[in-house]
Amino acid sequence: MTGRRSRFARSALGVCALLAACARAPEPPRYLLESPPPSRDLVGKLSFHETTAEDTLVDLAPQLRVGYVELLAANPGVDPWLPGVTRLAVPGARLLPSGKREGIVVNIGDLHLYWYGKDAVPRAYPIGIAKDGYATPTGVTSVRGKKEKPTWVPGESAHRDDPKLADAIPPGPTNPLGEYALYLGWASYLIHGTNEPRGVGRHSSRGCIRLYPDDIAELFAQVAVGTPVRVVNEPVKVGWIGGELYLEVNPDPDQSLELDETGKIAAPKPAKGLRELVTRAAGKEAKRVDWDVVERAGQKRIGVPTRVTKPVDATATAGAS
């Protein structure tokens, strides 16, 4: 019993480190600490990692298989270069984007690619997207081709940035496409691997979508030519888990870029349209929504699914008082 209580206490401390306001939230915990109940709206789970004095978040992110920006967002106040010995929240839990769940869905709003394979079990992969001055397009396209060990043909902007760049870069350690590439219906935009894993989960490309080497290998093996691809921008998502409504608020595009470049958000601003989105998702359960929690999640933007409905018993008790 002592060991079990100790593990619970450590998890509770980790969640409180995520967001100071959680100390005011009613029990049960509003964050997904253990394996969550089955849900059509969720992939993955939240976990924790103990850092050492030598760690940096930019190096830890690839090891933990999460993106650098999402790791920063989930651990506000932690210095990315000198985190010290601390307990990091590893934001492996993701609510699924809205819309049709088929093929590949890329959400630049949370820096993730979602793959809906034949087994209907979604997978989520952190991605790198366009850096400042460039753009990853949104809309609908499809996979038009696949290539193992692709050759990179730099475009005009790449030659402008580096006039000495060769006209073609063969497969190998200097090729930024990595070992695998999926070619889209949009000219010059690819889903591919990388020779620099620290660029995943960041604003690091000229518009292409980068995955960790192991992730692109897994995706490449399953995706067929003709697979639909939908690219959206949804920093805010909602979903149902175990009969409770959860809200995931990620940094908006400007805040995400600021986190990437500076390691923090200087002036947090609340997400817009939260009340309408949550009310619509809650439906007949809207009376159970804790709007204080919604507002705090919208302000903090830590990117961790947060329960925003009150337990049914608590709602009934409040109504009777």
Give me some keywords for this one.
globular; eight-stranded mixed β-barrel; Membrane-bound Lytic Murein Transglycosylase D, Chain A; three-stranded antiparallel β-sheet; disordered N terminus; 9 helices; 321 residues; L,D-transpeptidase catalytic domain-like; alpha+beta
Verbal overview:
The protein is of the alpha+beta class. 27% of the residues lie in helices and 23% in strands. The chain has nine helices and 16 strands. The protein has an eight-stranded mixed beta barrel with strand order 5-6-7-12-10-9-8-13. It has a three-stranded antiparallel β-sheet with strand order 14-15-16. Strand 9 and strand 10 form a beta hairpin. The radius of gyration is 20 Å and the shape is globular. The N terminus is likely disordered.
N- and C-termini, Cα separation: 36 Å
Q: Shape, please?
A: globular
Mind telling me the C-alpha Rg? 20 Å
Annotated CATH topology of the largest domain: L,D-transpeptidase catalytic domain-like
CATH architecture of the largest domain: Beta Barrel
Averaged pLDDT: 87
The largest sheet is: 8 strands, mixed, barrel
H/E element string?
HEEHHEEEEEEHEEEEHEEEHHHEH
Q: Specify the helix fraction band.
A: 25-40%
Number of helices: 9
Number of strands: 16
Class from secondary-structure proportions: alpha+beta
With strands numbered from the N-terminus, the spatial order across the biggest sheet is 5-6-7-12-10-9-8-13
- Domains, number: 3
CATH class of the largest domain: Mainly Beta
**Low-confidence spans: pLDDT under 50, at least 5 residues?**
1-29
- What percent strand? 15-25%
CATH homologous superfamily placement of the largest domain: L,D-transpeptidase catalytic domain-like
